[in-house]
C-alpha cells in the first residue's frame, strides 16, 4: 500500500512538532470525581458511538485531544446491534505467530484490531495526522535500516557500509524539488534472505539467513514476540505502528480497562483504552532492550551475565522478570542515567524528529537523531540555544531569570538545566573547579557523554548457530525454510572496560559492541561447516568490532582523567580480559616445540598432535592472523639455536622457515606486537627484532644495561621485569629506539634484602560508580602491575604514571614461577546467597600451587582475599585460556612444566579444579595459547584490525594516541591515595525498584 503525500507535507519536522506541541497534556489524577465525570462522558458518547457504547460501557476515552467516534478509528458499523454485524469480519486468519504480515493483509480487520497499525494508519489516523503518518512510515523506527545494515556489513554480506535495506520496499515520495538533508536517500529495498548457492564456508553466507528469521520484531510493522494471547512475555507487550508508542501497555499485557467486555485475562491488550500524547520511558523499553540495550542502561538495568543464576532473590538482580530474564539491577555496577534518576523520560530529550522521523529516508541513526547534550546544556564557551543540531526549537525549554528550565512532557515537572558555561565560569553558583580544569579547548571534540559515561555494557563475542537439519519461520515470507538460527549467545561480559574512538560526527565518543557475531554452522547431514568462525568484512578486516554509541549511562560525576590518558586499552589497543581461545596450545621445552589440540567441548580429550625438534627451547610466541586469531607462525627462542620461526599454517605439520643463530643468550619471554618481537633475554637484557619477514628476523634494538626476564606492552609503554632492579619501563613508540622511563624500582625500601622480579602482568582498572551517591567520587582507576619474585611472593604496584610508580603492598610469599592478572565474572550461587561479581584476579604459580588472589581493591589485599589454591606440581609457565562452549564461557589456566600441560578450570575461582593433563609434551618452560583479542581494534602501529560499519567513524591514529597518552601528570585528576574503596558489585543495599 502506498500513501501519496499531499502538498501539505512540505511543512517539515519543525512545523509538525509545533502543531503537536499545541495539543493538551493528558494527565489523570484518578479521583472519584474524575471517575464520575468520565462515566458521564462515556454515557454521553454512547449516542455518538451507537451500539459500540452500549456493549463497551465504561470504556475510557481513547482520544481525549479531539472528539472521534469508535468507527472513525476502528471501522465497523455502529448502527448494528449484533456483534457479528457490528464488528469487522476477518477475511484472512491471523497466523498466530510473530511473522510480519504483508502490507495488504486484511486491512479492514487489522484496522479494527489496532487502528494504529501502519498498514491502515493513513485511513484511521491520517485524516487528521497525515504528515505524522507519512513520517513514521519512513522513519528508522519503521524501516530499521541502520540496524540491519550494520550486521550485513560487519559480516561481509555487503560491501556498502550503509546498504539501502528495510523491512519493506519504501520510497521517498516527497516532492522532487524539496531539498533533501545530508544522509537522506530516495529508496530502501526489502532485505534479502539466505541464498542456497552461496559459499558454505563463509560466515557471510549463513549470516544472511539471520536477519529475516530473528531480527524482524523490533520495528513498528510488528508487535514483536508478544502476540496477543501469548503468556509469559512480560515487558514485551505493545501495539503496532502509532499504538506502539502512544497506547500504554502493562508489563504483563493485561487490560485494566473498565470495559466489561474486554478479556481481562488474555495478555496482549492495552493497559486502558487510552492514548497518551507523550509516551513514558516504559513504552520505549518495550523494544530498546536488545543490541546496545540503551533502554536498560538508562534505567540502571543490564542483560544478565551468561550463566548467571536467575532468581529474584539474588542480590544485584531486578525483582521482576522482564523480557524473559531477571536483569542486573546493581547501583554499584549499573546505576541509572542521571536524567532517569531525576525523573525524566526519553521524550524529554528526544524530539519528534528523533522518534517519528522527518519524512525522509535514512540509512543510519546519526543522520536522524537531532538532540545533543549541547541543545539543553550548551558548551563550555556558549550557553544553550534551546534548539537541536538541525535547528528545531525545543518548546518545553525556556530561559527564565538567567537559568534554563525544562518542563517534562510526561510528568509536567520542571527541571533546572545547568549550563556548561556556568560550570566553568568562576563566580557562578554552579562553578566546579575540577570541571573547569577538564572542560577546556583540548576537549572540545569530545562528546559530553564520553567523560560522563558512568558504565558501559559490553558483551564481546556474540555467537549465532545455524543448523540446516531444521527449518525455521522466515518472518517476512511466512514460510519455513531450511536453517534454524539461534542468536543472543554472549561470550564475554563486562561493565567496567571503557572504549573511545571517533564517531561519524567527528567527535570522540564511547564505543560498544554491536552486531559482531561469530558463527557455528552444521549441514543437514550433521557435518560441521563452521566452528566459531569469525566474520570478515569486504575490506578484509575483522567484523568482530565495535561501534560508537550514546551509552545512556550519564552520571553527573565524570570519569577520572587517567582512564583516557594513561592506558591504550581505552583506544582499542587490547586488554588481557576478552581473548577468545581458538584451537591450539603451543609449548616450548627441553625437547622442542609441541602443538596441543585444544578440545573445547571435552578438555580432557586435548592431545599432542605435532612436534618440532629444537634444542632447549626456552620461550615461545605466536604470530596470529589478524582476522581469525589462528597462529600463522610460531617463534621459539633457544640459547643453542637462537630464534627459530615455524610456519603453523597447517598446525599438524609445523615447518621451520627461518633461523637467526646467536640471536639470544638466556631467553625467558617473547612478546609479539605487530612487526616487532620483544625478547626478555635474561641477563642479556632487552632485545627487539623486526619480524615483518618472519623467515628473516633481524635485531633492531638492544638494551643490555638491564636484566629482562618478562615483558608487558600497553600501547607505547613496555614494562620489564628487571630482576634485582625490580621494574624497568621503556617508551617504545619507536621499537627500534626504546627510551627509558624508569630504570629501576626499589620495592622494599629500607629493607636490604633483594627483591628479584622475574615475572609481571599489568591490568588497567577502570573506575566504578559510587553506589551510594550518584554524584559522589568514583573509585580510583589505576594501572596495576603484579610482580612475581624469586623468593618474596607477589608485589602490587601502581604504574599509572610509568615514571613514578607507587608500591602498594606485598601479597603472598614464596617463589612465583609465573603470573597473570585479568578480570572475570565470578558466577554466584543458584540460591542467590553468593552474588555474581566482576572481579580482578591474579593467577600465580606459587611453588607447586596455583594461587588465585583477588586484587579488585589492590590496597586491601589480605590472606582472606586468596580465592583458591590447587596443587599443579612442578610448573614453569601459565597462560589464561577463555574457552567458549555454547552457551558457557570457561576460563582455564593453562600450565606447562615438568608434568606436561595441565588445564585448570578457574571459572569458579574459589574452587579451581584440574580439568585435563596432556602427556607427551616433556619438560616445558613456556606456553602460548592461540587466541583472538576481541577488544583489539588496531595493531601496534595504529593500523585497523577491525572495521567500522559507519562512514566517517574511525579509531584514533597512532599520533593521536601518543598525544593523548603523553599529557603531563600535573594536569590530570589525581585523587588521594587514601581514598575510600568502593563497595564491590552485589554488596549494595536492598534493591529499591
Structure, briefly:
The chain has 993 residues and is α+β, with helices and mostly antiparallel strands.
Q: What labels describe this entry?
A:
disordered C terminus, globular, 4-stranded antiparallel β-sheet, alpha+beta, 47 strands, 993 residues, 23 helices
Written description of the protein model:
This protein has 993 residues and is α+β, with helices and mostly antiparallel strands. 15% of the residues lie in helices and 28% in strands. The protein is built from 23 helices and 47 strands. The strands form 14 sheets. It has a four-stranded mixed sheet with strand order 13-12-17-18. Strands 22-21-20-47 form a four-stranded antiparallel sheet, with no helix packed on it. The protein has a four-stranded antiparallel sheet with strand order 23-24-25-26, with no helix packed on it. A hairpin with a 5-residue loop joins strand 17 (517-522) and strand 18 (528-533).
Mean pLDDT: 91
Q: What class, by secondary structure content?
A: alpha+beta
- According to DSSP, the number of beta strands is 47
Number of helices: 23
Query: Could you give a short account of the major beta sheet?
Result: 4 strands, mixed
- Rg calc: 31 Å
Approximately how much beta-strand content do the residues carry?
A: 25-35%
Percent helix range: 10-25%
Low-confidence stretches: 14-30, 975-993
Q: Which of globular, elongated, flat, extended, rod-shaped describes the shape? A: globular
Query: Which strand order do you get reading across the main beta sheet?
Result: 13-12-17-18
Distance between the termini: 44 Å
Amino acid at each position: 500500500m502506498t500513501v501519496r503525500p499531499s502538498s501539505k507535507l512540505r511543512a517539515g519536522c519543525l512545523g509538525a512538532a509545533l502543531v503537536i506541541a499545541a495539543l493538551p497534556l493528558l494527565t489523570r489524577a484518578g479521583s472519584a470525581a474524575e471517575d464520575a465525570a468520565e462515566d458521564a462522558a462515556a454515557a454521553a458518547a454512547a449516542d455518538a458511538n451507537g451500539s459500540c457504547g452500549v456493549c463497551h460501557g465504561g470504556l475510557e476515552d481513547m482520544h481525549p485531544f479531539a472528539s472521534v467516534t469508535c468507527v472513525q478509528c476502528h471501522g465497523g458499523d455502529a448502527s448494528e446491534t449484533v456483534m457479528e454485524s457490528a464488528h469487522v469480519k476477518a477475511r484472512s486468519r491471523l497466523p498466530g505467530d510473530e511473522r510480519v504480515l504483508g502490507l495488504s493483509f486484511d486491512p479492514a480487520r487489522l484496522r479494527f484490531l489496532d487502528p494504529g497499525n501502519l498498514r491502515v494508519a493513513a485511513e484511521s489516523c491520517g485524516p487528521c495526522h497525515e504528515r505524522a503518518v507519512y513520517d513514521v512510515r519512513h522513519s528508522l523506527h519503521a524501516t530499521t535500516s541502520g540496524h540491519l545494515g550494520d550486521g550485513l556489513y560487519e559480516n561481509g554480506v555487503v560491501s556498502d557500509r550503509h546498504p539501502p535495506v528495510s523491512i519493506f520496499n519504501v520510497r521517498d515520495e516527497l516532492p522532487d524539488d524539496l531539498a533533501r538533508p545530508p544522509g537522506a536517500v530516495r529508496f530502501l529495498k526489502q532485505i534479502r534472505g539466505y541464498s542456497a548457492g552461496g559459499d558454505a564456508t563463509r560466515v557471510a553466507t549463513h549470516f544472511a539467513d539471520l536477519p529475516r528469521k530473528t531480527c524482524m520484531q523490533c520495528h513498528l510493522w510488528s508487535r514483536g514476540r508478544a502476540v496477543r494471547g501469548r503468556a509469559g512475555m512480560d515487558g514485551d507487550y505493545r501495539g503496532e505502528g502509532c499504538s506502539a508508542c502512544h497506547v500504554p501497555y502493562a508489563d504483563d499485557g493485561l487490560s485494566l480497562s473498565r470495559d466489561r467486555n474486554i478479556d481481562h485475562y488474555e495478555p496482549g491488550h492495552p493497559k486502558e483504552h487510552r492514548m497518551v500524547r507523550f509516551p513514558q520511558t516504559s513504552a520505549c523499553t518495550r523494544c530498546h532492550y536488545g543490541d546496545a540495550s540503551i533502554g536498560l542502561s538508562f534505567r540502571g538495568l543490564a542483560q544478565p551475565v551468561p550463566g548467571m543464576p536467575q532468581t529474584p532473590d539474588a542480590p544485584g538482580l531486578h525483582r521482576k522478570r522482564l523480557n524473559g530474564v531477571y536483569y542486573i539491577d546493581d547501583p554499584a555496577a549499573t546505576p541509572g542515567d542521571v536524567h532517569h534518576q531525576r525523573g525524566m523520560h526519553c521524550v524529554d530529550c528526544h524530539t519528534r524528529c528523533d522518534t517519528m522521523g522527518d519524512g525522509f529516508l535514512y540509512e543510519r541513526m546519526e543522520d536522524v537523531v537531532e538532540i545533543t547534550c549541547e541543545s539543553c546544556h550548551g558548551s563550555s564557551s556558549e550557553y544553550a540555544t534551546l534548539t537541536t543540531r538541525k535547528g528545531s526549537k525545543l518548546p518545553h525549554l525556556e530561559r527564565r531569570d538567567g537559568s534554563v528550565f525544562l518542563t517534562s512532557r510526561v510528568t509536567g515537572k520542571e527541571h533546572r538545566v545547568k549550563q556548561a558555561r556556568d560550570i566553568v565560569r568562576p563566580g557562578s553558583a554552579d562553578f566546579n573547579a575540577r570541571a573547569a580544569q577538564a572542560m577546556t579547548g583540548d576537549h572540545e571534540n569530545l562528546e559530553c557523554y564520553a567523560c560522563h559515561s558512568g558504565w558501559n555494557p559490553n558483551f564481546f563475542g556474540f555467537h549465532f548457530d545455524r543448523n540446516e537439519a531444521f527449518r525455521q519461520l522466515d518472518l517476512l515470507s511466512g514460510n519455513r525454510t531450511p536453517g534454524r538460527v539461534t542468536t543472543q549467545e554472549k561470550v564475554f561480559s563486562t561493565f567496567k572496560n571503557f572504549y573511545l574512538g571517533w564517531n561519524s560526527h567527528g567527535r570522540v565518543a564511547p564505543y560498544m559492541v554491536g552486531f559482531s557475531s561469530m558463527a557455528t554452522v552444521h549441514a543437514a547431514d550433521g557435518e560441521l561447516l563452521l566452528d566459531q568462525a569469525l566474520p570478515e568484512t569486504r575490506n578484509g578486516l575483522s567484523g568482530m568490532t565495535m561501534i560508537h554509541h550514546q551509552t545512556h549511562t550519564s552520571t553527573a560525576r565524570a570519569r577520572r582523567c587517567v582512564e583516557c590518558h594513561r592506558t591504550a586499552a581505552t583506544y582499542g589497543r587490547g586488554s588481557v580480559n576478552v581473548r577468545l581461545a581458538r584451537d591450539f596450545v603451543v609449548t616450548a621445552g627441553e625437547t622442542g616445540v609441541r602443538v596441543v589440540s585444544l578440545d573445547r567441548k571435552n578438555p580432557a580429550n586435548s592431545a599432542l598432535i605435532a612436534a618440532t625438534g629444537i634444542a632447549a627451547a626456552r620461550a615461545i610466541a605466536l604470530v596470529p592472523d589478524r582476522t581469525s586469531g589462528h597462529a600463522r607462525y610460531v617463534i621459539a627462542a633457544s640459547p643453542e639455536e637462537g630464534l627459530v620461526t615455524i610456519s603453523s599454517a597447517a598446525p599438524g605439520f609445523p615447518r621451520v622457515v627461518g633461523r637467526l643463530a646467536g640471536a639470544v643468550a638466556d631467553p625467558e619471554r617473547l612478546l609479539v606486537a605487530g612487526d616487532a618481537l620483544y625478547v626478555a633475554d635474561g641477563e642479556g637484557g632487552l632485545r627487539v627484532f623486526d619480524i615483518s619477514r618472519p623467515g628473516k628476523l633481524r635485531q633492531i634494538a638492544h638494551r643490555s644495561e638491564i636484566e629482562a626476564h618478562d615483558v608487558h606492552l600497553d600501547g607505547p609503554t613496555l614494562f620489564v621485569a628487571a630482576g634485582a632492579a625490580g621494574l624497568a619501563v621503556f617508551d617504545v613508540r619507536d621499537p627500534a629506539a626504546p627510551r627509558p622511563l624508569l630504570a629501576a624500582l626499589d620495592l622494599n625500601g629500607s629493607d636490604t634484602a633483594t627483591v628479584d622480579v622475574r615475572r609481571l602482568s599489568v591490568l588497567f582498572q577502570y573506575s566504578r560508580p559510587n553506589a551510594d551517591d550518584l554524584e559522589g567520587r568514583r573509585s580510583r582507576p589505576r594501572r596495576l602491575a603484579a610482580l612475581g619474585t624469586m623468593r618474596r611472593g607477589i608485589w602490587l604496584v601502581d604504574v599509572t604514571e610509568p615514571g613514578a610508580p607507587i608500591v602498594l603492598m606485598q601479597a603472598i610469599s614464596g617463589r612465583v614461577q609465573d603470573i597473570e592478572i585479568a578480570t572475570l565474572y565470578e558466577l554466584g550461587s543458584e540460591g542467590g546467597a553468593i552474588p555474581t561479581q566482576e572481579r580482578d584476579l591474579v593467577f600465580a604459580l606459587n611453588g607447586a600451587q596455583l594461587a588465585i588472589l583477588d586484587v579488585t581493591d589492590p590496597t586491601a589485599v589480605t590472606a582472606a582475599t586468596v580465592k583458591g589454591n590447587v596443587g599443579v606440581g612442578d610448573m614453569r609457565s601459565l597462560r589464561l585460556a577463555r574457552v567458549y562452549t555454547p552457551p558457557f564461557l570457561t576460563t582455564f589456566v593453562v600450565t606447562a612444566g615438568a608434568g606436561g600441560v595441565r588445564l585448570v578450570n578457574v571459572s569458579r575461582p574459589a574452587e579451581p579444579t584440574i580439568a585435563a593433563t596432556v602427556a607427551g609434551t616433556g619438560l616445558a618452560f613456556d606456553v602460548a595459547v592461540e587466541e583472538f583479542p576481541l577488544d583489539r581494534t588496531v595493531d601496534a602501529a595504529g593500523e585497523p584490525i577491525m572495521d567500522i560499519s559507519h562512514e566517517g567513524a574511525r579509531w584514533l591514529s597512532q599520533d593521536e594516541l601518543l598525544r593523548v597518552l603523553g599529557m603531563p601528570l600535573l594536569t590530570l585528576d589525581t585523587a588521594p591515595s587514601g581514598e575510600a574503596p568502593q563497595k564491590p558489585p552485589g554488596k549494595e543495599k536492598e534493591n529499591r525498584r
